[in-house]
Design brief:
Blueprint: E1 12-24, E2 28-31, E3 37-43, E4 49-55, E5 58-65, E6 68-70, E7 80-94, E8 104-117, E9 122-131, E10 134-141, E11 149-155, E12 158-160, E13 166-169, E14 182-185, E15 212-213, E16 217-220, E17 226-232, E18 240-244, E19 251-256, E20 265-268, E21 271-272, E22 275-281, H1 284-289, H2 292-295, E23 311-316, H3 318-322, H4 338-350, E24 355-358, H5 385-394, E25 398-404, H6 409-425, E26 430-434, H7 449-464, E27 468-471, E28 487-490, H8 497-501, H9 507-515, E29 545-547, E30 550-552, H10 560-569, E31 574-576, H11 581-584, H12 590-595, E32 602-609, E33 613-620, E34 623-630, E35 635-640, E36 649-657, E37 670-678, E38 684-689, E39 694-701
Parallel strand pairs: 23-24, 23-31, 24-25, 25-26, 26-27, 27-28
Antiparallel strand pairs: 1-7, 2-3, 3-4, 4-5, 6-11, 7-8, 8-9, 9-10, 10-21, 10-22, 11-20, 12-19, 13-14, 13-16, 15-18, 16-17, 17-22, 18-19, 29-30, 32-33, 33-34, 34-39, 35-38, 36-37, 36-39
Helix pairs in contact: 4-5, 6-7
The structure holds 1-deoxynojirimycin and calcium ion (CA).
Length: 702
C-alpha cells in the first residue's frame, strides 16, 4: 500500500524559474517532483507540436501530436515555434470539507510553453503539470487580434502507447456511462460490442462519428504498469471521448461530443481547455489512491459551506425499481405517501441515518415522456411536503429532494429556481437530480458542452440555495467538487438499479468500476441490498425480462457480505443503503450499515487486480473499515495490517461469506465474528471470499 501521509507543515511553496529564448528548437522536459516521471514537449520535423512521456526511463507515451481545428483556424498545432518556456514548482496542502482523506497534498512541477503557430498566425500556450503519479496538460488561448469568439470543430490530442496494452473501457455512448466494462487490447477499443450491454450497442445514441471509449479508461502494460486517461476541470467544454487514431497502431485520439450542428465547443478567448490527464502507477491501487484529478481543480469558490455534509441515507426508491410501488399515482401503488415516508423517517431516526431520499413525491410521473410533465413543485395529493419535512426535522432526519427532469432541459431550467426556493423554504439541503432519457432539445447529448454548462448552472444555483447535489445521468466527474464542494456525488455508472430490471451486473462489474469510473470521483452506486433474489417482494415484483428468449426475474449477482463491503470499496460522501426498511429490520448484518462512516481521514488500497478483486481500507476517527470483493471466483486474500496504529487494541467485527456461500446459489449465507487484536502483534489477515462474494470488517479502536 502506498497510502500517502503528508507531513508537510508549509502551505504553498512556489519557485519560479523562467527561461526564455526565441524559437527554441530543443525538447522541453518536465520531471515529476521525485524525478520518476518525465514529460517532453517537442516540435517535430514537420513543425507539429508533440509530447511524449517516460517513467524511470521506460516510455509511457511515444511522440504524440497535439492540435486543434477551429472553424477559422483549422490547423492549429501544425506549424509551431516555441517562443519561451517557464517552470515552477507547487507544493501545497489543503483540507477538503469531506473526502477519502482529510488532507490533500498537491505537489507538482509545472512547465509552460509559450507557442506561436506561424501557419495560423496565432499565439497560444500549453501548460503541463507533472506529479509523481501522473501528469496533465491543457491549452490556453489568450485574447489576440484575429481570434475572439470561436467554434472548435476538433481537438486532436493523441495518446500514442508504445504497446497494445490491455485496456478496460466502456463504449463512447454520448448519453450514458451506464455500461459494463470490456477488456480488450487498445487496438480493439470501440471496435467490439460487449454482449453484456445489449441495451447499448454501437448503434446507440450518436451520429456517424467513429466509435471509441469514454473516460476514465484504464490500462495494464506487459511490464506491470497501470495507466488511466481522463480529464480534469471540465467546466465549459465538450466531454472528451477517445477513438483509435488509425487502424494499425495503439494510438488513441480525442473526439469531442458535438452540438447538433457538429460544432464541438463554442467559446471566446481567453480560453482554457480542461486538463487532459494521464495517471501512471505501479499497481492498480496506485491509480485509485491518486488525488491528481481533484488537485487539478481550483480551490473552493463557495462562500457558505455550512450545509455541505456527508450523509448516509435510506430512500423511498428500491420498491419503485422492483415495481412493488410506483413513482406516480397510477395503479394505486404510490410509494411517496405521507404515511410511507414517515415510516422510512422513523426507521432512519432509529438507526442513526442522516436522511431519507424521496422520489415520486411531485406530480408528473404518469406522463414521464411527455414534454412539460414535471413542474418540480406540486406534491401528489397523498404527500404532505410541509408536514413531512417538519416531522423529519423533529426526528433529526432530513428529507432529501428529487428533481428528475426526464432530459427536458429548457423547461427544467425555467422551473429550477422556484423548485430550489421551495426546497430551501422547507429545509431541504440536499437534492438528487436525474436526466433519464434523451436530452430535449433533440440533437443535444448528455455529454456535450451545452449539457456541461447546464449541469454547472444547477450546481451554482443549488449553492445559492444552500443545497448539495447528487446528479444521476450526469456528466462525468472531473474533480469539480474541490471548487464547488456542494457537487458531492453522482451516478454516471451502471448502478444497483440495473439488477432490478435487466440481466444485472456481474460480480466483476463492481471490481472494475473501482479501478475505472471510480478514478473520476465519488460514485452513487447505491449498494446494500440484502434481499438478493427479491424473495420478500414476491408477486409484487413487476419487471420480468426476456433474456435469451426466457422470462427472467431480476436479481443481484452478489453475496450479502459483498453488499456491505461495497460501502468501503466504492467511495461516496452520500451513500444510500438502498434496500427496504423491512429487509433491514432486525437483520444482524444491518449493524455494519449503521456503523460504517461516509467520510474518511485516510483511504488506501491493500491489494487488487482489474477483473478479479480489490481490498480497500479507510479510517475515520481512529477506527478502520475494510472492504474486499472478488469476481465470480472464490479466493482468499492475505493482507497486511500495518495500516492499524501500532500497539493499539482494536475490536474486530467481521462480516463474511459463509463457507458455502455463492453469489448465485447461496447468496445470503454469511457469518459475523467478533474478536480483539493488538496492532503489530498480528501482522496480516486472511480474507476468504466466496464466488461473487465479499468481506466487510470494522476495526474499532479500544
Ligand atoms: C434513474 C436514476 O438512476 C434512478 O436512481 C432514479 O430512481 C430513476 N432514474 C428515476 O428518477
Ligand atoms: Ca441511472
Amino acid at each position: 500500500m502506498t497510502m500517502r501521509i503528508a507531513f508537510k507543515i508549509f502551505l504553498t511553496l512556489a519557485v519560479l524559474l523562467a527561461t526564455s529564448s526565441a524559437a527554441l528548437a530543443e525538447r522541453f522536459a518536465i520531471n515529476s517532483p521525485e524525478g520518476r516521471l518525465s514529460v517532453y514537449f517537442e516540435v517535430d520535423s514537420q513543425g507539429r507540436l508533440t509530447y511524449s512521456a517516460s517513467r524511470s526511463g521506460q516510455p509511457v507515451l511515444l511522440t504524440s501530436p497535439l492540435g486543434f481545428e477551429f472553424k477559422k483556424h483549422p490547423k492549429l498545432g501544425k506549424k509551431v515555434e516555441i517562443l519561451k518556456t517557464e517552470e515552477r514548482t507547487v507544493d501545497e496542502v489543503w483540507y477538503p470539507l469531506y473526502g477519502e482523506r482529510d488532507k490533500e497534498t498537491n505537489f507538482f512541477n509545472e512547465g509552460s510553453l509559450f507557442l506561436r503557430d506561424t501557419g495560423e498566425n496565432l499565439d497560444y500556450r500549453v501548460v503541463c503539470r507533472v506529479y509523481d503519479d501522473g501528469f496533465a496538460f491543457r491549452t490556453i488561448i489568450p485574447p489576440q487580434k484575429g481570434f475572439g469568439s470561436f467554434e472548435l470543430m476538433a481537438e486532436n490530442t493523441h495518446f500514442a502507447f508504445p504497446d497494445d496494452h490491455s485496456a478496460w473501457w466502456i463504449l463512447d455512448n454520448w448519453d450514458t456511462y451506464e455500461l459494463i466494462y470490456s477488456n480488450t487490447p487498445v487496438t480493439q477499443i470501440g471496435k467490439v460490442d460487449n454482449p453484456l450491454n445489449p441495451e447499448h450497442t454501437h448503434g446507440a445514441s450518436r451520429g456517424d462519428a467513429p466509435h471509441g471509449c469514454n473516460t476514465p479508461v484504464t490500462m495494464e502494460t506487459k511490464d506491470g504498469l497501470f495507466l488511466a486517461i481522463h480529464e480534469a476541470m471540465l467546466t465549459d467544454y465538450a466531454g472528451m471521448t477517445l477513438v483509435l487514431a488509425d487502424e494499425s497502431t495503439p494510438t488513441l485520439k480525442s473526439q469531442l461530443v458535438p452540438w447538433p450542428d457538429g460544432v464541438k465547443v463554442r467559446g471566446e478567448a481567453p480560453f482554457e481547455t480542461p486538463w487532459r490527464t494521464v495517471q501512471v502507477a505501479s499497481s492498480p491501487g496506485g491509480l485509485v489512491e491518486s488525488s491528481m484529478i481533484l488537485n487539478l481543480n481550483e480551490p473552493n469558490k463557495l462562500g457558505r459551506v455550512d450545509y455541505i455534509k456527508p450523509m448516509k441515507l435510506l430512500g423511498v426508491w428500491w420498491s419503485m425499481h422492483l415495481g412493488a410501488e410506483t413513482w406516480g399515482m397510477e395503479g394505486g401503488r404510490h410509494g411517496a405517501t405521507t404515511e410511507n415516508v414517515k415510516r422510512y423517517i422513523d426507521f432512519a431516526a432509529a438507526n442513526g441515518f442522516d436522511g431519507v431520499l424521496v422520489e415520486g413525491w411531485n406530480t408528473g410521473w404518469e406522463s414521464w415522456y411527455k414534454d412539460d410533465n414535471f413542474d418540480f413543485t406540486t406534491p401528489y395529493k397523498d404527500f404532505d411536503l410541509e408536514g413531512i419535512t417538519a416531522y423529519a426535522r423533529e426526528k433529526g432526519v432530513e428529507l432529501v429532494g428529487h428533481l428528475e427532469t426526464g432530459g427536458q432541459i429548457e423547461s427544467f431550467e425555467e422551473r429550477l429556481v422556484p423548485a430550489l426556493d421551495q426546497y430551501e423554504r422547507v429545509g431541504v439541503t440536499s437534492v438528487k437530480t436525474g436526466y433519464a432519457g434523451k436530452i430535449r432539445p433533440p440533437g443535444q447529448y448528455h455529454h456535450g458542452q451545452w449539457m456541461v454548462r447546464h449541469y454547472r448552472k444547477v450546481v451554482e444555483e443549488a449553492a445559492r440555495h444552500g443545497i448539495t447535489v447528487n446528479a444521476h445521468e450526469p456528466i462525468k466527474d472531473t474533480g469539480i467538487r474541490r471548487t464547488y464542494p456542494n457537487m458531492m456525488t453522482r451516478e454516471g455508472v451502471r448502478g444497483m438499479e440495473w439488477n432490478a430490471w435487466s440481466r444485472g451486473n456481474p460480480p466483476e462489474h463492481t471490481v472494475n468500476i473501482a479501478f475505472t469510473r471510480g478514478l473520476a470521483g465519488p460514485m452513487d452506486y447505491t449498494p446494500g441490498i440484502f434481499d438478493i433474489t427479491f424473495k420478500n417482494t414476491g408477486d409484487k415484483y413487476q419487471f420480468w425480462n426476456k433474456i435469451d428468449g426466457l422470462e427472467t426475474k431480476g436479481r443481484l449477482h452478489s453475496t450479502l457480505a459483498r453488499q456491505l463491503a461495497l460501502f468501503v470499496v466504492l467511495y461516496s460522501p452520500i451513500q444510500m443503503a438502498s434496500d427496504l426498511p423491512e429487509n433491514y429490520q432486525g437483520h444482524p448484518a444491518f449493524q455494519f450499515l449503521r456503523d460504517v462512516p461516509v467520510d474518511w481521514g485516510l483511504s488506501g488500497v491493500l491489494d487488487g487486480k482489474l477483473g478479479d478483486y480489490i481490498a480497500v481500507v479507510r479510517e475515520s476517527e481512529g477506527d478502520w473499515y475494510l472492504g474486499a470483493i472478488t469476481d465470480e471466483n472464490a479466493r482468499t486474500l492475505k493482507v497486511p495490517l500495518d495500516f492499524l496504529a501500532k500497539g493499539r487494541k482494536y475490536q474486530v467485527t467481521t462480516y463474511k461469506d459463509a463457507s458455502d456461500a455463492h453469489y448465485e446459489t447461496n447468496p445470503t449465507a454469511y457469518k459475523i465474528d467478533k474478536t480483539e487484536l493488538v496492532a503489530g502483534e498480528v501482522k496480516e489477515m486472511e480474507l476468504p471470499l466466496a464466488p461473487g462474494g465479499g468481506i466487510a470488517i470494522q476495526f474499532k479502536a479500544l
